């Protein structure tokens, strides 16, 4: 009871302080809010919406069950999750956070995952998409497209390591529903696909409408968190709370022989990865390796902004948030260590300017590459996609209201 009352008091004071800060720093809050809205408006919404809609339809049509039956012999021994986890893993890497949490929660609601399996799965399917790593961070912030290779390797290999570590989480007995003779058989997978389609007897039009509605609702929630934490991060900076927290980090950075100037970018990155990565790239006194290590940790930790999005999605199920949060810390540490381990054999050997004979051409990853072109094209047409998608969703909701 005492702990509950203490929590109530703390939350009340925190929200009251935030409201007062919005009044005292109106211009700074507005600029931070505009920055968060612009990011969601131009990049996040149009890039994630197609993935979310198609994934919802794949689940409804039973394709995910089909994939799960085929991947069961791989995912079960490696990560102790059902084969459908392979679909969540792939979509999480392709579309970025919080897709892993969304699809895990959806499969848990359908009963395709147990609680422990869902907590294992969501722990290692949370990752940044390649578009953000290569275009926004490597090209946009560091002006070094080749740096995206080392960041991506550390990020995705780190997630695999987290998945292997989290397989030891929980003590439930393994699911023996799939017999050995059915493994790898297309017939069993096709049967699973058909049965799932029969159970979900919604017409194609209704299935598509529900997929659009569910996806847009999730992305609206994501946009709200992006804007909120962009404002919170800015306010903490102007209240000098970020500097106070950075003092505690300076001790650890000094122990690692890192410049203390990286402390404020590190703290900012704990709240919001975009700002943290940008501030890290601007530190002149740090070496490129040191800045890459900090950025790798920030990307893996995901920031409290993304974690709040995941917590909101998981709250709709019985999946606990604590394992996910611990996995983010593990991922941050592992991804940082992987940058150290891969720096010389990968970046220095193949991409350093000192070894130009072995270096890949800049255009392969940088200016003129399809990923960079797609990023800039998304900035141009992203707002139009967002407007048409929101208008379409409004029409669908209006039709449902009139029909009822």
From TrEMBL:
Transmembrane segments: 43-67, 79-101, 121-142, 149-169, 216-236, 248-273, 293-313, 325-343, 381-399
Residue ranges annotated for the Nucleoside transporter/FeoB GTPase Gate domain, each copy included: 43-137
InterPro entries in alphabetical order: Gate_dom, Spore_IM_YlbJ
Keyword tags: Membrane, Transmembrane, Transmembrane helix
Protein name: Sporulation integral membrane protein YlbJ
Organism name: Neobacillus massiliamazoniensis
């Amino acid at each position: 009871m005492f702990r509950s009352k203490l929590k109530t008091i703390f939350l009340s004071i925190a929200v009251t302080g935030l409201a007062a800060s919005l009044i005292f720093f109106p211009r700074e809050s507005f600029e931070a809010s505009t920055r968060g809205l612009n990011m969601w408006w131009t990049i996040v919404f149009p890039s994630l919406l197609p993935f979310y809609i198609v994934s919802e339809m794949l689940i409804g049509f039973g394709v995910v069950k089909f994939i799960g039956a085929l991947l069961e012999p791989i995912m079960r021994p490696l990560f102790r999750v059902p084969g459908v986890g392979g679909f969540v893993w792939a979509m999480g890497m392709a579309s970025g956070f919080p897709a892993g949490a969304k699809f895990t929660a959806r499969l848990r609601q359908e009963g395709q995952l147990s609680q422990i399996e869902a907590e294992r799965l969501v722990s290692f399917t949370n990752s940044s998409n390649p578009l953000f790593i290569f275009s926004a961070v490597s090209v946009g912030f560091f002006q070094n497209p080749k740096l995206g290779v080392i960041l991506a390797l550390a990020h995705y290999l780190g997630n695999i390591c987290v998945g292997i570590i989290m397989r030891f989480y929980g003590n439930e007995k393994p699911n023996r529903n799939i017999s050995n003779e059915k493994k790898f058989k297309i017939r069993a997978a096709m049967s699973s696909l058909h049965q799932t389609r029969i159970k979900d007897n919604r017409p194609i039009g209704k299935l598509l409408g529900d997929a659009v509605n569910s996806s847009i609702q999730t992305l609206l929630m994501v946009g709200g968190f992006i804007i909120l934490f962009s404002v919170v991060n800015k306010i903490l900076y102007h209240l000098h709370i970020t500097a106070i927290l950075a003092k505690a980090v300076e001790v650890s950075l000094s122990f690692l022989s890192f410049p203390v100037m990286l402390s404020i970018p590190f703290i900012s990155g704990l709240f919001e990865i975009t700002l943290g990565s940008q501030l890290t790239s601007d530190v002149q006194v740090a070496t490129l390796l040191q800045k890459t290590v900090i950025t790798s940790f920030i990307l893996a930790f995901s920031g409290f902004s993304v974690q709040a999005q995941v917590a909101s999605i998981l709250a709709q199920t019985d999946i606990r948030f604590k394992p996910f949060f611990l996995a983010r810390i593990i991922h941050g540490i592992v991804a940082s260590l992987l940058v150290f381990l891969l720096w010389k054999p990968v970046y220095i050997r193949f991409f350093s300017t000192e070894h130009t004979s072995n270096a890949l051409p800049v255009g392969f990853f940088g200016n003129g590459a399809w990923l960079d072109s797609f990023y800039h094209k998304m900035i141009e047409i992203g707002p139009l996609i967002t407007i048409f998608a929101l208008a379409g969703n409004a029409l669908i909701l209006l039709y449902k209201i009139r029909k009822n």
